[in-house]
Amino acid sequence: MALINCPECSSQVSDTALDCPSCGTSLNKLKRSFMGNVFKWLFILFNIFMLVASFKACGGVSEVYSSSQNEYEQAGAAIGSTIGMGLILTLWVFVDIILGLFVLFTRPKR
User: Cα–Cα distance between 8 and 10 in angstroms, integer?
Assistant: First the structure.
């Protein structure tokens, strides 16, 4: 453990200190662990994937709806798309809550 000078107030501070005890200037930034970074990127990539999947599903539904022969097929496409999007959104929320908790619990601590 060595002593360094604070860049703001020039007082002697330990090189492992996060903040200067005199002026409160942040000296060292906290870093996430490897697993913290993994969970953070999983959370981000999962949300991007689900957003793309939602748009692709909507495009597929509009194609089926427009190519249907009668109003019964259109009603079936509308009901099926509603159920499908409901399942996609339910999965999205459920996995987001789980991954969000992992991101929360692996954040850097003081």
Answer: 6
Phi, psi of 16 (to 5 degrees): -95, -5
Q: What is the CA radius of gyration of the chain?
A: 25
Residue 15: partners with Cβ closer than 8 Å, 6 or more residues away? 1, 2, 3, 4
**What SS3 class is residue 4?**
strand
Kindly report the number of other CB atoms within 10 A of residue 28's CB atom.
10
Question: What pLDDT, in 10s, does the model give residues 24-62?
Answer: 888 777 888 999 999 999 999 999 999 999 999 888 888
Residue 69 corresponds to which tokens in the numbers above? 């022969």
- Binned at pLDDT 50, 70 and 90, residue 19 comes out as confident
User: 14 and 1 in contact (C-beta within 8 Å)?
Assistant: yes
Distance (Å, rounded) from C-alpha 88 to C-alpha 64?
A: 18
The answer to whether residues 32 and 42 touch, using CB atoms and an 8 Å cutoff, is no
